[in-house]
Amino acid sequence: LSDKLDKALHVLKGHGSITEVNVAETLKEVRRALLDADVNFKTAKEFTNTVKEKALGQDVLTTLQPGQLMVKLVKDELTQLMGGETAGINLSGAPTVILMSGLQGSGKTTFSGKLANFLKTKKTKKPLLVACDVYRPAAINQLHVVGDQIGVEVYSEPENKNPVQIAQNAIEHAKTNGFNVVIVDTAGRLAIDEAMMTEIANVHQAIHPQETLFVVDAMTGQDAVNTAKAFNERLNFDGVVLTKLDGDTRGGAAISIKSVVNKPIKFIGTGEKMDAIDVFHPERMADRILGMGDVVSLVERAQEQFDEEEARKLQKKIAKNQFGFDDFLNQIQQVKKMGSMKDLVGMIPGAGKALKDVDIDDDAFKGIEAIIHSMTPTERSQPSVINGSRKKRIAKGSGTSVQQVNQLLKQFDQMSKMMKMMQGGGGRKMMQAMNK
Ligand code: GDP
Ligand code: MG
Fold it and tell me: What SUPFAM superfamilies would the database entry show (predicted)?
């Protein structure tokens, strides 16, 4: 056996011919899922490139179950991108001082309450909430309502308009009254402005918090990244709180923020109630972003349906340059075996939802099949003989147009070229070609 053929067969043993398509396809879907989940374009692209490199490095295509390995690679990489491990919070200090930062409406006040409640359940923690949003009486009131709800004391000075002083006084109050965690809620504006940044930076400098948390609404998507950047430049915060993950949002902001500011996401908020708080788990978020169950079944289904014997026969034909339209027809039938198009599209994260009401049926294949059926055996095995007058005859016979016949011939030509490439350089070359 020649080296080339050996290599090609080896690829096929691992269901190479279809899974190479799957690798590229899977990554395309992953990228789409990431974009759907509000991951910024650059991050999504870098991510899929990294996974592709790793896939090639591990010779995914020559393993027994390339699809599963692929899925695992994607998930692991995504988990890694979000910090890998769950990040804890620093509860050292006497008392521990935790400062909240973020835009107005991001969920700082709500999260301050949730965190106090969360810590209270640890028997050794006695939290104190501090109202440093001094501009709106309603804000101070809001924190008192929250405090009452969870049975946590709230420190406020309604007449004092200096947040730095209030925070310092609160810490003194905590020391003399046996509180060991001080959670400082601050004011936010609707957009980043210099006055707000200076104010929170001053508070930060004065009280030396063990934890400065940046609270961000997950639904703000791309904007979340810019806000995170601005706050991080001023505060060099320790961690991120991603709120409002109970909605439709998929949480891609988690990835974008992590990759831009390189700070761990520590908690997530999943509702308005005081117990709607969770420690952030990168792996679970990876599942959520990818709608992973669906990607897994898509890949598995594609693999199941591809008959290995069929593939081997095909490989022989390609090797002998005998691949023709009959084989092409065969391939289409294989694809159809995988299930209806609508089913398949439904499994693609993101796309499923968007295309739910669009009517996709298998008619897309019908035209192609009709054209091939109208070809003579010679034309099928040697497509190069198909000239202008033959094209006209085929179009007429199949109830299509010459344009459609041309289109199919072009597709076929591309497919044949790709197959030859596969033979020559193995999977790597093909993947490169497909991802240009
Ligand atoms: P602040 O201006 O940063 O203090 O934000 P608030 O804590 O006042 O929250 C703004 C709004 O978002 C309020 O209506 C909250 O009830 C709501 N909110 C906060 N966190 C969550 C969350 O995790 N899920 C949902 N659904 N709503 C939230
Ligand atoms: Mg507030």
Answer: P-loop containing nucleoside triphosphate hydrolases (SSF52540), Signal peptide-binding domain (SSF47446)
